[in-house]
C-alpha cells in the first residue's frame, strides 16, 4: 500500500498525526484601562482612553448571496432554459437549411460532397435537451431525416464507385 500523503506520514498502514505546540498568551506592555468595572476601553499610547460605544440592537440578518450569484461569479451559471431552447432552435434551423441546400444541389445537378460534409458534421454533434419535449421530438425527427439523407447519398456514392 502506498502512502497517499506527500510528506510520507503513513507507516505500515497507519497515519502519524503530529500537532503544533499551543500558542501562548499575548503579553502586553501596558495595562488595559477600564472605564467601569466591567468594560475595557481601547487606548492608544499617548492618548486618553475612549469610551466604548454601546452595542446597537440586533440587526436583521442579510441573506448571503444566492447560489446562482456565486456560480455566476465563478463563471458556472446553470444554463437558462431560454438559452437552451434558443440553441436547440438554431441547431434545428441549421439542419433544415442544410437539408434544403442538399435538395437544391441534387435538383440542379451540382456535386453534393461539401453539403454532405457539413450535414454530417452537424449530425455528429450530440443534441442537448432543450427542456421542451415537443421541440426535442421535432429536432430528433430532423436529425433522423438528415442521417437518412447522408446514408442514401453514401450508398449511392459507394454503388457508383463499385461499378
TrEMBL record:
Alphabetical GO biological process terms: bacterial-type flagellum organization
UniProt KW keywords: Cell projection, Cilium, Flagellum
Highest taxon of source: Bacteria
Biased composition (Basic and acidic residues): 48-57
Polar residues composition-biased segments: 21-32
InterPro entries: Flagellar_assmbl_FliX_class2
Region (Disordered): 21-58
Name of one Pfam family that matches: FliX
Protein name: Flagellar assembly regulator FliX
Amino acid at each position: 500500500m502506498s502512502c497517499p500523503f506527500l510528506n510520507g506520514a503513513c507507516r505500515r498502514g497507519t497515519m502519524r498525526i503530529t500537532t503544533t505546540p499551543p500558542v501562548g498568551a499575548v503579553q502586553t506592555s501596558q495595562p488595559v484601562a477600564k472605564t467601569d468595572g466591567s468594560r475595557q476601553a481601547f487606548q492608544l499610547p499617548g492618548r486618553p482612553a475612549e469610551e466604548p460605544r454601546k452595542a446597537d440592537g440586533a440587526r436583521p440578518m442579510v441573506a448571503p448571496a444566492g447560489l446562482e450569484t456565486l456560480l455566476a461569479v465563478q463563471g458556472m451559471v446553470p444554463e437558462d432554459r431560454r438559452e437552451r431552447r434558443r440553441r436547440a432552435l438554431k441547431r434545428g434551423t441549421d439542419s433544415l437549411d442544410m437539408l434544403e441546400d442538399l435538395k437544391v444541389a441534387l435538383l440542379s445537378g451540382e456535386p453534393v460532397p461539401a453539403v454532405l460534409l457539413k450535414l454530417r458534421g452537424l449530425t455528429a454533434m450530440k443534441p442537448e435537451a432543450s427542456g421542451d419535449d415537443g421541440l426535442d421530438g421535432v429536432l430528433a425527427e430532423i436529425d433522423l431525416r438528415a442521417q437518412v439523407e447522408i446514408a442514401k447519398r453514401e450508398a449511392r456514392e459507394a454503388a457508383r464507385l463499385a461499378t
